[in-house]
Structures are given as structure tokens and as C-alpha cells.
Design goal:
Number of helices of chain B: 17
Strand content of chain B: 5-15%
Subcellular location (chain A): Cell membrane
Largest sheet of chain B: 6 strands, mixed
Largest interface: A-B, 40 and 49 residues
Mean pLDDT of chain B: 84
Oligomer: heterodimer
Distance between the termini of chain B: 64 Å
Low-confidence stretches of chain B: 1-7, 24-36
Membrane topology (chain A): Multi-pass membrane protein
Radius of gyration of chain A: 24 Å
Main location (chain A): membrane
Helix content of chain B: 40-55%
Pfam family, one (chain A): BPD_transp_1
Number of strands of chain A: 2
Keywords (chain A): Cell membrane, Membrane, Transmembrane, Transmembrane helix, Transport
Strand order of the largest sheet of chain B: 2-1-3-10-6-11
Structural class of chain B: alpha+beta
Chain lengths: 322, 432
């Protein structure tokens, strides 16, 4: 990601060379100063809002820091405590893993399915695309999470609906068994962003391949498996990595639906929620920083593993010709 | 060619300067000063309901009238959110000048140097008219860091009309826990489980505290250790658990949503006919919101000891880093001692702490606050002195008590295992 952003403004020097005065014969990329000027808002943001705080939190993760008094250096104590002396930490890891493993595939399947349907729609496709994309824009907001909480609450719409057909669940939000599913559903409902990317990917698949497969007498399933999936695999991979990272970092839904407590009975105690609780409710900012870094390392490791496996199943068209 | 490179470097320099300037502006904006022309603006944050906010705004308006040079900006949120926000603000160096403080957090903040001392120095506030019993609740190591604006006490409230209808025996001054159980069971049975007798009380540390005190124990010892053992927690949870099994108290999916707000109180939703609470919960519009009148009485007891105490419910503190401690002290003084402010605030924070204000306010009350006032006057003589502020981590212990109790009511762990888990969590919380 960082790489891409850096390259784009560097290319902006190109037209200047073409139209510009012949005396200044800057070669491509030889005027870094100008690039930095255009980059400066981003660089300022990255330094002040991302890299600076990250380094600070790395330092704090080795300290005992209660937010008010000077941090005390404790070495690796926080990290040691995470794994040896904190049952709630392990509980939060369990909840988060469950969430990632359930919500990511469901969301991608929903996104792909709807994208394939929309790919066939010719009339009003813009409208449908916007309609399905809307939840992605709204979904991150606390307001939607509140609505979600009400819908799945005791005597909410879902509970009343199910009761009408004789299924009494007593509301999902207040049940340790179903509460996590409410948040999963909230995540899946926001399938719009990966859907749009899938849709773009589908449009890129050459029609000849479909024509060829239909001439060969392939059925829908065979075409899907042998043409659509392989051709789409780079996009699937991209969405998978992105959505998985999002899922690991998920916070708002759990925070709002559980009223900030991760309940009932810690069944929605997301990693980030526990981190937040430690940092801001229980005055353990150093410990919370250690948690944040542990999460970063885990996400990095899982992403690396995904990239490792990608060679086996991600197919880049044109690779053969290189 | 060497010269050619210079413009590039100059532009780079320019870029860096531009960024620097930008940051400097941002930093300057963050500073936000006041104090021009002798006018100061102080911030006052508190937790509470919209009703309390209305009363508070009235009192603040009176203060601003009386002190033309001081402007007060106030904001409020719910209890949990308030303390999360406060911690962040304090860490970021933007704590409000005047802040509402809770008994269970006084030590946490005072020990860490966040609060200004109120019995000497710039932020001194006079304490005449306040009882020593109450002031001890805001003192840490015999220095005053928080002044109680109101006192409240634990109370049992119930829907007397409903109890009568189902034939439940009304509470008396000498009623026992088993009497409550029988009455609650009657409500549940009499309404066919439409209305449960009582909110499940097992997960609330404050009610556990009363029960402990009835047996001569306490929540925290003088030196800040736990004043009870696993056996006490087990006994308490066994009690409430058996009531839940029989239906006398609310079932798990209702109980887990109790969070101290009126909206989520099962009594408000007519799913329960009674609850333990604090008398400050009897806010002026309560009966309209709940759609029925509630009657206040004291806790049941098996030992003859009441266990209830005069609690400095809400206290006011001044931030150590406030630039306007004098103005802040004026506001605190006004809110606590001024009779017009007292009238405006009414019972919105509980029974006024200042005796002069208390008498005045008591005479004007109506509805729920009047019932709370009369209740408090009735039990005042039997109340114990408030224990000293609990140790650091007490707020976390309180939350853990309810959370671990969730395991019990959802049948995810036995009472014994949960008690063990809670004690180890509690010890961890107050030792670190």
C-alpha cells in the first residue's frame, strides 16, 4: 500500500518534463523535492498520526504506565503477563479468532455471490450497486450498531418475528450463545466494499473464455470453477487479506452491541475491546500497548502465511508470457 | 548540473518548513487559553441522566449570574463512559477543571496526583455544614480531595400496588431475606412469570457489600485488602442463584442487560416489580417514566444489623492541573453550599450534603424525590459511617463482579468455580 502511494506522485513529474522548458532537463524522478511537497500532507499525517504514536506505543509496551504518572520501564513483563497470567486475554483471543474465521469467509461469499448476480444485471445496475454498497459506508458507524442491537435484542424485530413462528430465543444480544453471531451478521451485511472489487474483477474476465467454455458444453458450475474462480483469484486474494485484517481489528460493532462490556459472559470480548478496556477503564496503558503490538505481530504473521499459500492458488493471467 | 540540483533542495526545504508551520499551528490550536479581560472559562464534567443535566444547567446559570467573570462549560455522559473519557482527558492534559468524582475512584485519581487538595491551597473550599462522616469518604490519607455534594444510601424499592394484588407480604422494619424471597416468588407466580418479583441482585457488588456488613464484614479492610473470602462470595451467589432458579428474580437474559441506567432497568420495562438501588435513583419524573409508583424501604436483614451506610454518592473535585483553580473552587462552593443552587439541583444527585440546603430542599420536594427524602430521614439514625475510599482497582473489581456473575446465571460455570475466578481477578485488580 505504502509503495503504491509513494510511486504515484513521483510519476507526476513526468508531464513537467515533457512540456517544460528544454533547459531544465530533469530526468524521470529527478525532482524529488516537488514530490515531497505534494506528499507533505500525507507525510505529516503519517508521521504525526501513525508512525509517532506507534513508536510511542512500542516504548509504552515495555513500561508500566497508568496514563497519569510517568511510565516505569518493566522490560518484557507486560508480554510475559499476557501469556502466563491473564485468562481474559486468552478468552479475547478465542472470541476474536472465532469471529475472524466465521465472518471473513461469510462476508466474501456474500460479496462474490451478489457481485456475480449484479454482473448479469444490465438495467439499473448502478442503482443496485449503490444499494448494496451503502451498508459498507454506513456500517462502521455507531448509529448502525445501535440499530443492530435493537433489531436483535429481546423483543426486537428478529425476536418478535421468530416468536411469531414459535421459536423463542429471548433475543440474541443477551445470550452468550448468539451474541457473537449478531456482530458477525453486522459484518457480513457490510459486504459492499469487497463486492464492488469483485464486480470490477468479474468485468475483467475476457468473454472469450466464457464463450469457449460454453462451446465446450461446460455447465454453470464447471464454468464457475474453471473460469471464474481462477481468473478472479487475485481479487479473491486481495479481498481475503484485506477483510481478514479488518476482522482482526474489529471494534465498533462489539463495543456498541455489548454496551462496551464484551458481554454477556465475555462472549463478545473482542481483542480490541479488551485492549480498550485495559487502556482506558483500568489504567493499564502499558499493558494495552503490549496487546496492540502482539496483535500487530499476529496480523503480520497471518498475512505472511496467506501470501505464502497464495502461490499455490492465485493465478495471475499473463504470468506465463513473462 | 550541481547548481541545477539546488532548486530541488530548496523545494524540499520549503516542504519541510510548510509541514513544520502546519504542525505549529495545530499545536497552537490545541493550547486553547483563557483569562483575557479577567474572564475565565472553566469546564465541568459529570455523569448522569438528562434530568440531572437539566437541573445542573439551571444551577450553573445561577452561578454565572452571580459570577459575571466566570463562564462554565459543562458536559455529561453515562457513568461508564464518563470515567473512560475522563482518563483519556487527564492523560492528554485536558482534564475538566471541575469534575464529578465517584467514591470508588477517589483514591485512584488522588493517589496519582490528578486531584487538587481541597482543604488547603488555591483550591480550598469551605466545608461548613457538611458532616465529618461524609467528608471522610472524600479524604485520602486525611487530605481532602473530593467534597460530597450529596449523600445517598442503599434502599429497596418495590411496586406496592402489585405486591398487594398478588398477596405478597409488605416489608417491615424487621424483615428477613427469606421474607423478601417469599414475597418476590409470589409476584412471579401471581403474574405467571410476566413480572418477576425482583431484579437479580447477585451481580451487584454494592448489594453484596450491604449483605457483608450485615454480618460484620466489610468490602475492603483498612489497608485496602479484600474484606471477604471465596466462601462469602459463594454463599451470596448461592442465595441469588437459588432465587433465580425458582423464578423469584429475573432470568439471565434480562439480568445481563442491567447496567445502572433507567432505560435498561427491568422495573422500568415492567418485567420486575422491585429492585435494590440507591435513593438518588428516585428522580422527579421516575414514576411517569416507569408508569407506576414505587415504595422505598430498607434492606432485609437476618442479623439485626442494617448494613447500610451514608454514602458520599457524588463528589466534586478540582483538577490539579487546572489553570483556574480559584474559579473552579468558587463553582464547587456554589454548587454545594448555595441555597439557590441547592433548590435548582433538588435531589438530582441525592440528598444534599450541606445541612442547610438539605432542610430547605426537603421542604419543597414532591413525588419520588420526596419519597427518597422521607426514606432517608427515616433511616438516617441507623446508618453507618461511610468506609474510607476503596483501594485502586476497586472500579475494575465492581465490573468484574457482575461479569463473572454472568457465568453463573447463564450456567456456564458453577457458583464455586465462579467465586474462585472472581476472587483471583479481584486480587489482581487491586494489587496492580
Amino acid at each position: 500500500m505504502v509503495h503504491q502511494t509513494l510511486e504515484r506522485p513521483a510519476g507526476a513529474g513526468k508531464p513537467a518534463r515533457e512540456q517544460g522548458q528544454p533547459r531544465r532537463r530533469y530526468r524521470y524522478g529527478e525532482r524529488p523535492g516537488l514530490a515531497y511537497l505534494f506528499l507533505s500532507p500525507w507525510i505529516a499525517g503519517a508521521l504525526v498520526l501513525t508512525i509517532g504514536p506507534m513508536l510511542a506505543s512500542l516504548y509504552l509496551s515495555f513500561t508500566d504506565y497508568d496514563l497519569f504518572t510517568t511510565p516505569q520501564w518493566v522490560g518484557l513483563d507486560n508480554y510475559r503477563r499476557l501469556f502466563t497470567d491473564d485468562p481474559r486475554f486468552l478468552a479475547s483471543v478465542g472470541v476474536t479468532l472465532r469471529y475472524v474465521l466465521i465472518s471473513t469467509p461469510l462476508k466474501l461469499i456474500a460479496a462474490l455471490a451478489v457481485a456475480m448476480l449484479l454482473n448479469r444485471v444490465t438495467r439499473g445496475s448502478g442503482f443496485y450497486r449503490s444499494a448494496f454498497y451503502a451498508p459498507s459506508l454506513l456500517g462502521a458507524s455507531a448509529a448502525i450498531a445501535i440499530v443492530w442491537r435493537l433489531i436483535f435484542d429481546n423483543q426486537g424485530i428478529v425476536d418478535n418475528g421468530l416468536s411469531a413462528i414459535g421459536i423463542h430465543t429471548g433475543g440474541w444480544v443477551a445470550s452468550p450463545r448468539y451474541a457473537l453471531l449478531v456482530i458477525v451478521a453486522l459484518a457480513v451485511w457490510q459486504f459492499g466494499a469487497p463486492m464492488v472489487i469483485f464486480l470490477a474483477g468479474l468485468k475483467q474476465i475476457p468473454q472469450e473464455l466464457y464463450d469457449a467454455s460454453s462451446v465446450d458444453g461446460a455447465g454453470w458450475w464447471r464454468t464457475f470453477r474453471s473460469v471464474t474462480l481462477p481468473m478472479l483469484s487475485p481479487v479473491i486474494f486481495f479481498n481475503l487479506v484485506l477483510e481478514m485484517i479488518h476482522a482482526f481489528q474489529s471494534f465498533t460493532g462489539a463495543f456498541v452491541v455489548s454496551g462496551g462490556r464484551g458481554g454477556p459472559s465475555d462472549s463478545t470480548l473482542f481483542y480490541t475491546l479488551y485492549l480498550y478496556d485495559n487502556a482506558f477503564s483500568n489504567f493499564r496503558m502499558g499493558y494495552a500497548s503490549a496487546m496492540a503490538w502482539a496483535l500487530l505481530l499476529v496480523i503480520a504473521a497471518v498475512t505472511a502465511v496467506l501470501f505464502g499459500t497464495s502461490r499455490r492458488w492465485v493465478y495471475y493471467a499473463g504470468d506465463d508470457s513473462r | 548540473m550541481r547548481i541545477r540540483k539546488h532548486p530541488g533542495r530548496a523545494v524540499r526545504l520549503l516542504a519541510v518548513t510548510a509541514v513544520g508551520a502546519l504542525l505549529a499551528t495545530v499545536a497552537a490550536c490545541g493550547g486553547g487559553g483563557s483569562g483575557e479581560d479577567g474572564n475565565v472559562t472553566i469546564r465541568f464534567d459529570y455523569w448522569g441522566s438528562a434530568e440531572r443535566a437539566k437541573a445542573t444547567n439551571d444551577a450553573i446559570a445561577l452561578f454565572e449570574q452571580a459570577n459575571p467573570g466566570i463562564k462554565v462549560e459543562s458536559s455529561f455522559s453515562d457513568f461508564g463512559g464518563y470515567f473512560q473519557k475522563l482518563a483519556t482527558q487527564v492523560a492528554g492534559g485536558s482534564a475538566p477543571d471541575v469534575l464529578q468524582m465517584d467514591y470508588s475512584y477517589v483514591r485512584e485519581y488522588a493517589d496519582r496526583g490528578v486531584l487538587a487538595q481541597l482543604d488547603s491551597g488555591e483550591a480550598q473550599v469551605q466545608t461548613s455544614g457538611l458532616s465529618q462522616q461524609l467528608l471522610s469518604g472524600g479524604s485520602v490519607d486525611s487530605k481532602l480531595f473530593a467534597i460530597p455534594i450529596a449523600q445517598n444510601t442503599q434502599m429497596f424499592s418495590y411496586d406496592a400496588a402489585q405486591w398487594e394484588k398478588v398477596g405478597a407480604t409488605e416489608p417491615t422494619d424487621t424483615w428477613k431475606w427469606s421474607d423478601l424471597q417469599a414475597a418476590a416468588q409470589k409476584v412471579t407466580d401471581g403474574t405467571g412469570k410476566k413480572v418477576y418479583g425482583l431484579n437479580d441482585f447477585g451481580g451487584v457488588l454494592d448489594w453484596f457489600e450491604v449483605w457483608l456488613r450485615q454480618q460484620g464484614k466489610q468490602l475492603y479492610t483498612e489497608d485496602g485488602k479484600l474484606g471477604y473470602t471465596e466462601a462469602d462470595v459463594t454463599a451470596w451467589w448461592k442465595l441469588s442463584d437459588s432465587w433465580r432458579t425458582s423464578g423469584a428474580v429475573t432470568p439471565a437474559e434480562i439480568t445481563t442487560k442491567i447496567d445502572g441506567t433507567q432505560e435498561n432497568d427491568p422495573v422500568a420495562q415492567k418485567k420486575s416489580s422491585a429492585t435494590f438501588g440507591y435513593d438518588s435513583g428516585f428522580t422527579p419524573k421516575l414514576w411517569e417514566q416507569y408508569g407506576r409508583e414505587l415504595t422505598a424501604t430498607s434492606f432485609p436483614t437476618d442479623t439485626g444489623k442494617r448494613g447500610q451506610f451514608a454514602k458520599p454518592a457524588m463528589m466534586l473535585s478540582i483538577a490539579q492541573r487546572s489553570d483556574n483553580k480559584k474559579a473552579a473552587a468558587k463553582l464547587v462552593d456554589f454548587l454545594i453550599h448555595d441555597t439557590s443552587a441547592g433548590t435548582a439541583l433538588g435531589m438530582s444527585r441525592g440528598l444534599p450534603a450541606d445541612e442547610k440546603v438539605r432542610e430547605l430542599v426537603g421542604a419543597t420536594l414532591q413525588g419520588p424525590p420526596k419519597a427518597a427524602y422521607e426514606y432517608e430521614q427515616k433511616v438516617l439514625a441507623t446508618l453507618d459511617t461511610a468506609p474510607p475510599p476503596p483501594p485502586k482497582g476497586a472500579g475494575e473489581v465492581k465490573v468484574a463482579f457482575q461479569r463473572v456473575y454472568d457465568d453463573v446465571i447463564f450456567g456456564r460455570a458453577t457458583v464455586e468455580a465462579s467465586a474462585t475466578k472472581f476472587i483471583s481477578e479481584a486480587q489482581r485488580a487491586i494489587s496492580s
